[in-house]
Amino acid sequence: MLQPSYSQIMNKLNSDANETVVTSRYSIIIATARRARQIIDIVNAEGAGEITSHSASKEAQALKEQLKKKKPTAIAVEELYNGKVKIREQYIDSHIS
What we know:
Elements: H1 6-16, H2 25-47, H3 54-66, H4 72-81
Helix pairs in contact: 2-3, 2-4
């Protein structure tokens, strides 16, 4: 099981902000999954030579080193808990005609 738990992440994220940032387990799971996918894509793009920026290449190398010890999901959970990744609310405005 990954640590910290979703409730620990929710408590930490909400305690760091003036207002409630995260209200559901679902938003933590989605944010973690998206970041894990992003980590994989960054490392793969670097391996294929698609990254030209020095800072992006440096980030890709750091992630590649972390992937030797941890899975992308574990890295994403850790980044979310430590505040390296933020959850933004997306509002979908739908009108029924």
